[in-house]
């Protein structure tokens, strides 16, 4: 497996390179800022890009914007975002384009080397790894037990396709139903998951997060 790393902390960057090498994963290039990420991805076409959210010059969302640019310019590139804290807009923007080949982990998880390497391999293979703390905070920890318990089998099926990044029209074609039927299922999913219209376009992402959290539990 070949990876690239965008991380401004030299210590963490070199630590990641060493951890990956010990697991047989080759780091083909590293950069210390967001803008450099797109260039090394286009040059090396890695199996995975590991990206810090906050990097120079403003230390706000450079890494996220770089990751989104990579997903647009080189579709299908698996991305693992590392963040110091849970930040809602970063997770929702990242997952909004489809959850396949996407990871969002808190940096403290790197300390569990086996778990981190497992996440790296799963994301590179097209899987999804979202930190449980991220899911818990984004969903407000307001639902106990199974958040999908009230969904019908068809609604769970629709939600699973949403998690793959499919549009309503694509879901309709996949299930051989009308787009109107899909819209009704999605409205019912939002209602049962207590996702309010005031949450706007984030409702779809929040529903996917609930699905991912259920799947990982």
TrEMBL record:
GO terms for biological process: phosphorelay signal transduction system; regulation of DNA-templated transcription. Residues 2-122 form the Response regulatory domain. It holds the Pfam family Response_reg. Keywords: DNA-binding, Phosphoprotein, Transcription, Transcription regulation. Residues 144-215 form the HTH luxR-type domain. InterPro entries: CheY-like_superfamily (IPR011006), NreC/VraR/RcsB-like_REC (IPR058245), Sig_transdc_resp-reg_C-effctor (IPR016032), Sig_transdc_resp-reg_receiver (IPR001789), Tscrpt_reg_LuxR_C (IPR000792), WalR-like (IPR039420). One of its GO terms (molecular function) is DNA binding. The modification 4-aspartylphosphate is found at residue 52. Gene3D superfamilies: 3.40.50.2300. It comes from the Bacteria. This is Oxygen regulatory protein NreC.
